[in-house]
UniProtKB/TrEMBL annotation, chain A:
GO terms for cellular component: cytosol. It comes from the Bacteria. This is Phenylacetate-CoA oxygenase subunit PaaC. NCBIfam families: PA_CoA_Oxy3. InterPro entries: Aromatic_CoA_ox/epox, Ferritin-like, Ferritin-like_SF, PaaA_PaaC, PaaC. GO terms for biological process: phenylacetate catabolic process. Pfam families: PaaA_PaaC (PF05138). It comes from Stappia sediminis.
Amino acid sequence: MKDLLFAYILRLADDAAILGQRLGEWCGHAPTLEEDIGLANVALDHIGQARALYSYAGEVEGKGRDEDQLCFLRKEREFSNCLLVEQPNGDFAETIARQFFFSAFMLPFWEKMKASKDETLAAIAAKAEKEAAYHLRHSAEWVIRLGDGTEESRERMQDAIELLWPFTGELFEADDTVKVLVAEGVAVDPASIRDEWRETVGKVFGQATLEMPEEGWAQTGGRSGMHTEHFGHLLTEMQYMQRAYPGLKW
Amino acid sequence: MVIAMASLAENQGKTQSLRDKAWAVAAKVVDPEIPVLTLEDLGVLRDVRVADDGAIEVDITPTYVGCPAMGIFTMDLETELAKAGFDNVRVKTVLSPAWTTDWISAKAREKLREYGIAPPEGKASRRALFGDETVTCPRCGSENTEKISEFGSTACKALWKCRDCAEPFDYFKCI
């Protein structure tokens, strides 16, 4: 039971940490100053969530690993984040599509997690929910602005959606870890979010004059450590300091 | 027995006055990003206790989980309490109940406005995907304002602009 809980918290932490790292790559490179600050702020929220989750995972594991060890000293196959969050930033439309798909899932996810029997997860959820609401609004506004914008912005937004769509199915995947913890009242059943997610996405795409792709092939594997080729490169950069100077503290 | 009771009461009295003194010190520590507000004004200071080992335990809660000011709050609390003679201090971060802008007092909202930051409007709740907000310009009082960016100079603020006096300003986001 403890092992399952540890694995579950780690997934949530990995999702947040990896998306935070990706968004952080925009710092100093975003299309406008406001967006530079905006993306860095969203990154900061995700990194804050990751820190709380990694610290808690370390406590549950009980082997003395802290947030830094869990984030910076695990190998590629040990990470269990979903594939969506590790996808490269691409152009601004791809970054926005990735954020929109993820936040449209995480807002109802954290809302439900507030009722978890695990008090720490419920407490983290109560904070993260408020942040997710902002992330969803920010990314949804951009989806509409770009989709309902110029010919080129619409085309790029539509391309980004098509590119990332196959990675959205994994958000709703429930393996044995999730199923057992859902039965225990600890985890959120991702299937219970599907309708709300589709409704949010459909509504925003409608306003953005964008096409909703057909259901179809879902690329999965992240939860069991099978990542896309981009992931190793991300870790190389993210973990450099702890690998080069083990035990480094600020 | 009577003597024991009396000394217990005396001890409780001492603990209470130590606690009050520590609270008064902690309550004066200000937010480094918004130096007109104290941690007490913000509702970030949740509790001050005297632990069994005599240490002062201070509970603080982050506005946003990734708020980078938490480290500074902790350092400043330790420094100020040490100056007041409390050598053994433990600052703890608590997440529950989740911080909300509703905890910012009316007096603190007025201080924010005077400082040039528009205070959060209304009560916090999970709003519709695209909520319509009216934010009042902290400089000229006009409601003819527009949002420039959802995210401002810190995690807790958004960037707005007044269409009347043309001043850009920070808005303390309502969460």
